[in-house]
Description:
Elements: H1 2-13, H2 19-26, H3 30-40, H4 44-77
Amino acid sequence: MDEFKRETVAQVVDRGYLVAEVSAKAGVSTKSLYTWKAQFSQPRKQIIETTEQTAEIRRSKKELPRVSEEHDILYNRSGLGPACAQQKHPELCCAIKGSGRSLIGGLS
């Protein structure tokens, strides 16, 4: 039944037919058609906003791994977190001989 209602509303909203014409052809009252229209149709502005929001979410999800990787690189480079702590063998992460700096950004 909902499919019939949606298709009837689509004739008014999407195709531009008059409510009186569609209600007469469908054999329903204009009051019923207006009720269905309120129930099943979204304003064009809301449809456009929803589409734009969906596109923005898609772009953000696509960009997230790159931004996360950049964050991790910068976080580890700045010395805020030990870059070697994520390795399987942190004991191999030691000071570079003669440089005065360790691999984690601090002084040795």
